[in-house]
Amino acid sequence: MVSADTVLRDVRRLEPGVRPAPRVLGVDDWALCKGRTYGLILVDLEWRAVVDLLPDRASASLSAWLAEHPGVQVIARDLSTEYAKCASQGAPAAVQVADCWHLLQSVRQLVERYLPGVYAHLRELPEPPAPAVSASGRQHAFARMRTEAVIRQRAREERHQIYVHIKELKRQGLAIATIAQNLKLNRQTVMRYEYAHSFPERGRQAVREAQLDPFLPYLNAQWLESRENASQVWREIQERGCTGT
Question: Fewest Cβ atoms nearer than 10 Å: which of 98, 175, 222, 224?
Fold first, then answer.
């Protein structure tokens, strides 16, 4: 077993290998103290190796580094206009591209902003011509017990109160991050409610295969015979292989 301090000492003793100046350079933030202090990490994307760590993410630092290391032909960065300006100043001949991670993040954020606003309109669409069915042919989800229905309704009322509260705070001019902090909610939750044109209802329960599905013909037959003793019928389907309660 080796301690972490020993590993760090050994790493610091290593002499870095000599590599040619990076041709394809990746630029992104790295956190010295998350949420407070950030620097820049520079990566040779062809060698898949860290080239340098800059102590801050100021435009002058990146521009100076690029000027001191000529030969960069492609710079992969996020969508920040500040980074674009730095790259243009330090390596004006380099091609700038947006990296895949930030592109996908931007697409996800755009979809998250768009979908809440169209939930109400999606519910206005006509029902599909062929409803989903389970393997047993059942077309509807099993009805919930009264207690479950009450709990579900209370949960909906709580979500609706949060939705109304978020809309009111936003109308007062509060930022999404401030609302999330005040209400102790996830920022994504606040964004989803804020961008929604109407209260986003939960989707209808999908019809899924249930433990009772193989025994539905037997249960229906008992019901037609006016056998309503649930405990007795349960014991009988247990003998037929049902593992549910």
Answer: 224
First-to-final CA distance of the chain: 50
CB 215 within 8 A of CB 240: yes
Q: Kindly compute the dihedral angle of the four CA atoms of residues 184, 190, 194, 197, in this order, to the nearest 10 degrees.
A: -110
> Is the entire prediction scored with pTM above 0.85?
no
Report how far residue 121's alpha carbon sits from residue 192's, in angstroms, rounded to the nearest whole number.
16
Q: Show the DSSP H helices in the chain as ranges.
A: 4-13, 59-68, 81-90, 100-122, 146-171, 176-183, 187-195, 216-224, 230-239
Can you tell me which residue has the tokens 């049902």?
A: 242
8 A C-beta contact, residue 103 and residue 78: no
Rounded to 5 degrees, what are φ and ψ at 172? -80, -5
Query: What whole-number distance in Å separates Cα of residue 199 and Cα of residue 8?
Result: 53
Q: Nearest 5 degrees, angle CA 151-CA 117-CA 154?
A: 10
Contact 188, 113 (CB under 8 A): no
Provide the CB-side half-sphere exposure for 210 (13 A, CA): 17
